[in-house]
Amino acid sequence: MSEAVADRIRGEVESNDVVLFMKGTPVFPQCGFSNTVVQVLTYLGVQFKGVNVLEDDDIRHGIKEFSDWPTIPQLYVKGEFVGGCDIIREMFESGELRDYFGSKDIALETA
Amino acid sequence: MAMNASDIERLIKEGLPDAKVEIRDLAGDGDHYAATVISAAFAGKSRVQQHQMVYKALKGSMDADLHALALQTSAPDV
């Protein structure tokens, strides 16, 4: 991965509290796994930025190296890589995810 | 290219010799699997680290050969 790509990824992760690297957009996810994470975040009422890796091949490959994680989606909260679809779903189902956002001072709009 | 469940299990066990591995073929297409992996090596590790250890054992197969592997990892109950 080039330094320029790493800088762009770092820029996204550092300038947004909650960032989801995903296939498609939050309004129109193009992969079931990305969709699952969008649904969870939406359910919890978390504001997040979606980065569509399908629009950018550099980011699509770079993000896997950035986090040493081979799959997409990838969720970052305040600069920290939290996990992919399986981890987010598991944390959501156990209630851990809500607590995690709380511990990071991320606002949840209770539905 | 698809992968056999037994190949996935073998790779995981090569990387994590004590692991208990259970693989389910979700779609019957050799391309979408769910794996439950239990290993003492996971003790004290975060979920992200546990999954990274499994991905490492799979040595790049996640990128090239395997479209989807739903992972659940844990350390054995003491």
Architecture overview:
The complex is a heterodimer of chains A (111) and B (78). Helices cover 49% and strands 15% of the residues of chain A. Chain A contains five helices and four strands, in the order αβαβαββαα. Chain A has helices at residues 3-15, 32-44, 57-66, 85-94, 96-103, and strands spanning 18-22, 49-52, 74-77, 80-83. A four-stranded mixed β-sheet of chain A has the order 2-1-3-4. Chain A is globular and about 40 Å long. Chain A starts with a helix and ends in an 8-residue tail after the last helix. The model of chain A has no long low-confidence stretch (mean pLDDT 95). Chain B has a single domain (5-74), classed as BolA-like (GMP Synthetase, Chain A, domain 3). The mean pLDDT of chain B is 88. Chain A binds chain B through residues 33, 64, 68-71, 81-87, 90-91, and chain B through 47-48, 51-52, 55, 60, 62-63, 68, 70-72.
Topology of this structure?
The complex is a heterodimer of chains A (111) and B (78).
Chain A: H1 3-15, E1 18-22, H2 32-44, E2 49-52, H3 57-66, E3 74-77, E4 80-83, H4 85-94, H5 96-103
Parallel strand pairs in A: 1-2
Antiparallel strand pairs in A: 1-3, 3-4
Chain B: H1 5-15, E1 20-25, E2 32-38, H2 47-57, H3 61-64, E3 68-74
Parallel strand pairs in B: 2-3
Antiparallel strand pairs in B: 1-2
- Cα separation of the termini of chain A: 40 Å
Might you state the CATH topology name of chain B?
GMP Synthetase, Chain A, domain 3
Question: What count of structural domains of chain B?
Answer: 1
Number of domains of chain A: 1
Number of strands of chain A: 4
* Gross geometry of chain B: globular
Low-confidence stretches of chain B: none
Roughly what is the average pLDDT of chain B, rounded to an integer?
88
Would you list the SSEs of chain A in sequence order as H and E?
A: HEHEHEEHH
From the coordinates shown, what is the CATH architecture of chain A? 3-Layer(aba) Sandwich
Q: What is the N-to-C order of secondary-structure elements of chain B (H for helix, E for strand)?
A: HEEHHE
For the biggest sheet of chain A, the summary is: 4 strands, mixed
